[in-house]
Structures are given as C-alpha cells and as structure tokens.
Design a protein that fits this description.
- A hairpin with a 4-residue loop joins strand 6 and strand 7.
- The chain folds into three domains: 61 residues, Nuclear Transport Factor 2, Chain: A (Roll); 120 residues, DNA polymerase, domain 1, CATH 1.10.150; 164 residues, hpI Integrase, Chain A (Orthogonal Bundle), CATH 1.10.443.
- The protein is of the alpha+beta class.
- Helix 2 packs antiparallel against helix 3, helix 3 packs across helix 5 and helix 8 packs across helix 12.
- The strands form three sheets. Strands 1-2-3 form a three-stranded antiparallel beta sheet, with helices on one face. The protein has a three-stranded antiparallel beta sheet with strand order 6-7-8.
C-alpha cells in the first residue's frame, strides 16, 4: 500500500482555525488514489490522526474507514472472504465458521452484485429490493425455465444477512428489509410447490424405466430414496460404506442441513439391502469404509432421472417427492407420526405433517371407517 500525507490549515464557518488531515492511499495495481479526510484543532492532532489512519489501514484494511462510502460490491466481497467460506466443524460436529454450500452462496451474491453493483449500501431501500425480486422473477435460466421463487428468496436471504453484518460492523444503521408497512419480501409459505406422492403403479413404472443397461446403475439410489425417505444430499453426498451395517440391517444417515452435523440410524429394507450388497460385490477389494456408497450410481443421475420420469409418465414428480412418498406410506401403514419424524430426521413433528399427503389408499380407508360407523349407528337406531 502506498500512502501520501497532507495537512492544510484553514478556517471553518465560525472563523476558527482548524487543520484538514488528508491521507491518500492506493495499491500499486489501482488506477486511482483513494483518500480519507479528517478535521482537527491542531497540527499535532492532524499528524496523530494521519498515523492512526495509516496504521488501521495496514492492519485492518479500509472497509471500516470508508463505511459511509461502502458499496454493495465491497460488502459482497467482504462477506465472501469472511462469512461465506467453507464450513469448519469441531470434534463434536458443531459448525464453527463458514457455510456448507459455498459455491451456491457465492452465486447468489454474484446475482445481487449484478443488480446493486457499486450502489452505496446506505442508499439501498426496500423498494430497490422489491425491484430486484420482480426483476429476477422475470428472468429465465439457461434452459429457458423461469427462475423459481425459492431461488430468489434464497438470494434475498443472503442480502438480508449481508445488511445485518454491515449493521454489526457499524457500516449501516438500519436494514432496508424493514419498512413501515411491515410488508415482507421473503414469504416462504408462497414458495412451497405442490407435493406429489407416487402410487404403487407409478412406482413400478418408474423402477422399470431404470432397468435398461444405460440407466440401471442409478436404480439403487431410487430404491434407497423410496425405502429410506432421505434427502438427495444425505444419500449421494454423505452416505459412506462405514455407515452401512448389514448385520443389524441399519443405515446411519448424515445431514448437514442444520447448524450441526446430525446422524441417526434407520432400518434397511430387504430390497435395498439386496442392491447395496450387489454394489459392495462390484467394488470387491477396492471398497474402502470411507468411500461414498453411491459414487458410481450417481453418474449421470440427473439425466437418467429426467429420462426415466418421461418414460414412466411421472414428469410431475420431483426427486424430493420420493421422500414425501415414503412419509405418506409410513403414516398410511400405521406408523406413528412421531416415529416417522425420527426416520426423516425432523426435530419438529409439524414439519413431518407437511410431508404427509392423503393418497387414494388413505382416502378409501377413512371412507370405509366412517361408512362402517354410520351403518352401525343407523342399525342401532332402527332397533
């Protein structure tokens, strides 16, 4: 960093003699100089102030000193370097710093920077953020599909956290997400898509669509999703061979969705055990406990899933709907919802309720129960 110091004696509006301490600074690769100006009462104070400013810039950088001039781009850079970094955990699995999905967070910040760029963060208001939301929802992805509301909400959540960080650093006095009308930009309830549950016939068609040789290697993941009700990340990214206990017929699930690493045991069905044993046999002596179970099965999974959905005629079903299917079936089969919540990894049963859909079997079951009750009442009254 290169510094230049200037002290100028002048008079203020009241006619009092004051000293303007001006510090100019730049990195060698910068095209222009930046400067800080402070006004004090004496030349000695001016020299002390310039020394203090230079020391702070050398030790902490210029962001805090330029708070009144801080742009959204600078704030985003600070957050990328200091907040949205790879997560670190202690020995107990408690997250200490950073975030789990760094790349996704950086992409969200990049979209925000495209819009707000070099705007002074103090000049960004609620209407600007509402305009961003409207603009993003009008855009389309590379594949031509519209941007989802949930995606825009995640980006706005990042912006809200950035402004809170700025407030904590005293770079900003109020979060622009708060307005007098109490209108909310992030409405999670509005983004929840309709959930779908596979019928027995639809499941049979879907599994059959994975039988051809070019897609057969992905079949174990689909069976695992249907028979465990676990998330894509827990199965594809975090399930290791050391988490599989063939003797007891159990699988240890790992999730990083919350602040801490969370692990719990779930049962292994017969058909899933068969698929896992076949995968283990194929690995042979190359299998290591720390390896991911579905490394090979995950190859071209997205492509295979999209093609199989079309062949099976279930294009309305998302991969996450397999989790809803499991929850709905377990409830329909009489498993208490509290136990279903434990299997799914939900800490709150209310979350599990959202996963349970009324399928045709449940509707018929309820109808038959009520019909039987009504017939019994009518028969008793007729006596």
């Amino acid at each position: 960093m290169i510094f230049q110091r200037y002290i100028r004696e002048t008079k203020n509006r009241a006619g009092k003699t004051v000293f303007n301490a001006r510090l100019r600074y730049k990195e060698p690769e910068w095209r222009k100089w930046k400067e800080l100006l402070r006004t004090v009462d004496s030349r000695n104070e001016a020299n002390t102030k310039l020394t203090d400013l230079e020391v702070e810039i050398r030790q902490r950088g210029t962001t805090r000193l330029e708070a009144g001039k801080l742009t959204f781009r600078q704030l985003a850079t600070y957050c990328k370097d200091n907040k949205y970094t790879p997560a670190t955990y202690d020995a107990d699995g408690t997250k200490l710093t950073g975030v789990r999905s760094v790349q996704a967070a950086h992409i969200a910040l990049d979209h925000l920077v495209e819009c707000f760029g070099d705007m002074n963060i103090m000049k960004i208001d609620f209407d600007d953020l509402a305009g961003y939301k409207k603009h993003r929802l009008s855009q389309k992805k590379k594949n031509g599909k519209p941007i989802k509301l949930a995606t825009v909400h995640r980006e706005l959540s990042k912006a809200r956290r950035m402004f809170n960080i700025a407030i904590g650093k005293k770079w900003l006095y109020a979060n622009p997400f708060k307005n007098e009308s109490d209108e909310k930009l992030i409405q999670i309830a509005a983004e929840r898509p309709k959930t779908n549950v596979l019928s027995d016939a639809e499941e049979a068609r879907l599994l059959k669509a994975f039988e051809p040789p070019e897609r057969q290697h992905s079949l174990p993941i689909i069976i695992a999703a249907l028979d465990t009700g676990q998330r894509h990340s827990s199965l594809v990214e975090h399930l290791l061979w050391e988490h599989i206990d063939f003797e007891s017929g159990q699988i240890m699930v790992t999730t990083y969705k919350d602040v801490n690493i969370k692990q719990w045991w779930i049962p292994m069905t017969k058909r899933l055990k068969k698929e896992l044993l076949q995968l283990k046999l194929k690995r042979g002596s190359f299998l290591k406990p720390e390896q991911r179970v579905f490394d090979g099965a995950a190859r071209n999974l997205r492509k295979n899933w999209e093609f199989a959905r079309k062949v099976a005629g279930v294009t309305h079903v998302r991969f996450h709907d397999l989790r809803h299917t499991t929850a709905t079936r377990l409830i329909a089969l009489g498993v208490p919802i509290e136990e279903v919540a434990r299997i799914l990894g939900h800490s709150d049963v209310k979350t599990t309720y959202r996963y349970v859909n009324l399928n045709q079997k449940t509707i018929d079951k309820v109808r038959n129960v009520l019909d039987t009750y009504n017939d019994a009442v009518a028969a008793a009254q007729a006596v």
